[in-house]
Amino acid sequence: MAKRTTKRTTQRSTKRPTRRSTGRGPARQAGEANVNPPAEAELVVPATRTGDNPDENEAQAKLPEVMPLLPLRGTVAFPGTVMPLTVGRPSSRQMLEESLPQSKIIAFVAQKDEDVDEPEMDDLYRVATAGTVLKLIRQQDDTVSIIVHGLRRVRIKRLKQEKPYLRAAVEPLTEKSATSRRFEASVNQLRDQARQLIELTPNAPEQALTAMMNIEEPGTLADFLASNLDLDVPAKQDLLEETNVEVRVRTVLRAVTNQLEMARLQQKIQQDVQSSIGQSQRKLYLREQLKAIQRELGEDGEAGESVQQLRDRLEEANLPEEVMNEAQRELNRLDVIPAASPEYSVITTYLELLADLPWNKASEDKLDLERARRILDRDHYNLEKVKRRLIEYLAVRKLNPEGRGPILCLVGPPGVGKTSLGQSIADALGRKFARMSLGGIRDEAEVRGHRRTYIGAMPGRIIQELRRAGTNNPVMMLDEVDKLGADFRGDPSSALLEVLDPRQNNAFVDRYLDVAFDLSQVIFIATANYMGTVPPALRDRMEVIDIAGYTDHDKVEIARKYLVPRQLTENGLTRKQCQWRASGLRKAIDDYTREAGVRELERQIGAVCRGVAARVAGDPKSNGRKNGKKSSRHTSIVDGQLVREMLGPEKYTRELEMRREAPGVAMGLAYTPAGGEVLFVEATAYPGKGNIVLTGQIGDVMKESASAALSLFKSRAPELGYDVKQLADRDLHIHVPAGAVPKDGPSAGVAMYTAIASLLLDLPIRSKLAMTGEVTLRGKVLPVGGIKEKSLAASRVGIKTIVLPKENQRDMEEVDTQVKKKCRFEFVENVDDVLAFALGKTKLKHVTK
Length: 849
What we know:
Homohexamer. Organized in a ring with a central cavity. The chain is α/β, with parallel strands linked by helices and about 850 residues long.
């Protein structure tokens, strides 16, 4: 009778008293042996006492020496308990199918890592529980549910079988009991603490307390509580491996005491919350009564005072009529809403924003053209095109004060001063400066704001920056406009279309404000490294000003005027202590930097200054400060030798110095978002079947240029004195070094054609010559872009001759004067002219049609 009652209790779906849900759903449990159900955990109940069931006593006395192993995920089976398990692994199901007809006794062992799908012996603990499978239920999802009864602790001695499932030799573990008075007191305290914990646990099953009180054996009581406590697998495994009953009881007692304290604390918090809610409702009722009484007496109270203060602030802000009407409607709502209502704070925050925005506050422009030119020259070297455009804007503003603000976009490689130029523009105009970084923004609400219906709604970044600036006509820098992203939350670049349109942004509507704000007086200045990623509609709304990289001469001047003084100040040095020479600056520029801007150059200058500072600080003749001024007799002359000593081996070498004149190697020019780059094109031939191999991580356009260049050479082979039949038995391999860098574009067509011609004609290309241009199958050389940046890159590496398409001659006005002095430019119309310059061959009689 007792056994039948136990099995009925086992199959009931009841909630365990203290174990929290693990969060693993049915999908996770389908492939594991683990405690089921997914919704709520079942109570692991104690089995009938040993001795009441003769079959179980006999099974426990005759445990097999070799048992199959059933790995368990996220749980530990204890002796003397009955628990349900869900078996989902194919190997575990096969083990049950093959083992249960022979013997119902199985060793249940916990996994060390529950994420392992097919555990081996190293993934399992060495102490397990031998148990009997009482019932097996097949489920519709190919899983098997079993009800098991833990019999005895066993130790796994050695593995007998690995496939298709684990079998191992085991030995029973003998428990050490105790009979001292202290032990009896611990057992009684454990039973009392467990009873209180079950009573404090919400939704605890009724039979849990009865089952626990009916357990007489201390070891069985400890195992029952351990299986139901909220402990992790390692902690439960430690209890399973503990054969000393006294130690196991004390360990479980500590765990029960801790969870009992936590349950008492949670109960106290819940009671306090319920009391607070009841008290809040009472206060709300009394507050409404007080408000009604004050209204009858004509006294508004504190809430009325805050509303009146808001009304005064809105009137002082001199809002436009339609905005004031919206504010008045919100004020009327605020009068009838209780101060404790969440809507009250939302409306108050909205009205405070309306009062803080600079609707009619504008800074006065300083239209002194000479002063503006001095400020721009003070902060930035060269950049004449940008400075001229800003002076033109000031002149127009002086003649037409009501004109609309321009939308400028500064495009250039990193480190040329685009972002810092915005602050200089604001200083020159006498306006406030606001900066909004757009890099990585993917949410359209960052620009337009959130609707006030959402919790935590706020205005967009543009309105927030205007609020901080305090004027409606600041210089607003939209930094990194080419780094905007788009995802399911919207496209921020599309939200900028209205902002950056001078004829629409006078009525910009932020979703949070829900009223129009005039942005027409704001000077928007966007920056970008590359305009190719900017949407065409957004690009059309901006006036693009290209800022090319700096020449070596420019970098020397920038370092002398700006970088060196700034690094001396930051590193606590004086000009006397650290005297830079032009040779030191050129050494840092040529051998330690390779960039269009000057950021890396400033870092290298800072590194040298830090080294000098270490010498100065360690100089025994240095006596720190004297009369408030830095004092030291140490002086460092920073020339090329000292830069080499401070910075170590050179990072970069001139490509031309490493190159040897050999057929099949041409030098092209490329334009990247980081500025111009020199691009080598290498060609080689070997026995084959007339195929062409292209490597170097090149894009589809460049691959097509290589195919076109080869076809063009084949068509002109007779005029070049080459037998095209030789290509039938040879394969061509064209490689563009720096294979880790993606490369694409048609401008390498001329270089690829020249490399192929040089290889097959066995003629080396002239040294210190670079070229760029797109080729057609008729032999024409078409114009390309980025001439200024490409010429700068060529000059930087020591190129002396640059071959350009004839139609790019008009771009020579943009080429830097220093580059024109260093390099010779040759303009070609067709590939015959290219070979004449590159290979030294006489101009061919072949006429391009």
